[in-house]
Amino acid sequence: MPRFSGKTVIITGSSNGIGRSAALLFAQDGANVTITGRNAERLEETRQLILKSGVSESHLNSVLADVTTSGGQDLLVKSTLDKFGKIHILVNNAGAAVADATGATGTDQSIDVYHKTLQLNLQAVIEMTKKVKPHLMETKGEIVNVSSIVAGPQAQPDFMYYAIAKAALDQYTRSTAIDLIQHGIRVNSVSPGVVATGFTNAMGMPDQASQKFYNFMAAHKECIPALVAGQPEDIANIILFLADRKLSSYIIGQSIVADGGSTLVMGCQVHDIRQMMGL
Ligand code: NDP
Fold first, then answer.
1. 171 C-beta closer than 6 A to ligand 1
2. Would you call 179 helix, strand, or coil by DSSP?
3. To bridge 72 with a disulfide, which of 15, 66, 189, 216 should be the other Cys (CB 3.0-4.6 Å)?
């Protein structure tokens, strides 16, 4: 029997990248899956990808929603319960490094960018966790958060608000893990390094600049010692591992780093990201 047979999972940010890959793997492994994002075209691409892999429509719930809004969060929870009856797994994956439209960097980035960044990468996770908690208490379920290696102790002047949000998210993962394990709910997290997704596009980088960035990173061992940019499946497989109680039951409140060795060297800090992108 597929390992997630009979389980229902909500994966935020599954219209692209890591979330899309996790949604496909969960669905192929028997789960009922709620996929979601704001972009209707990309969300439909995820839905088609899953259907084409042989998964039946009855196992899929596709919801166009902004996860930073209360209405969007409520719709995700309600439509999942309406279609599947229960919730066993919440993957808080939606996230982005919001760029300042004026091109400002460092301390010059606006407070509006700060609010938007924190709202998506931290507050939406807190709100989704609160809303899904009663349903996970019923099923003794799992939460997997998607953090980032930028949460670590190194300075991140180019993405400071994003790094602040992910560092706070790591503390939230640890604290909720202890608060919720008393109810049988397990909380863990994954911290990716560089992964080739829509992440740089979402920051406003065109495809060509994004490709230059990934090529640069993969060509420099001080950036990625494994000399390869990660693929969405590299992270999605860890999400499934952390959501699988049979495999990871004794892991509580931890974040698994998957970064091709980047955090062991962190040499990329010496390079200018704009030069890497050819801008
Ligand atoms: P993508 O840009 O490919 O995917 C991000 C997903 O989040 C999309 O499905 C997007 O959907 C969704 N999203 C963004 N904002 C909202 C919103 N307001 N409401 C609903 N959905 C939203 O990036 P990744 O797959 O790389 O990102 C996934 C996670 O991985 C993020 O948390 C990111 O911080 C983290 N991460 C990524 C790294 C990388 O190098 N790629 C490195 C470290 C961490 P839509 O646009 O349709 O709204």
1. no
2. helix
3. 66
* d(CA 119, ligand 1 centre) in Å: 13
Q: Is the CB of 204 under 6 A from ligand 1?
A: no
Digit-coded pLDDT (tens) for 220-241: 999 999 999 999 999 999 999 9
Q: Where are the domains of the chain?
A: 8-200+230-260
b or e along 227-245 (b: 16 or more beta carbons within 10 Å of the residue's beta carbon)?
A: eebbebebbbebbbebbbb
**258 ligand 1 Cβ < 6 A:** no
Q: What is the pTM of this model?
A: 0.98
The alpha helices in the chain, defined as continuous H runs, are: 17-28, 40-52, 70-84, 111-118, 124-139, 160-181, 199-202, 207-219, 232-243, 245-248, 262-265, 273-276
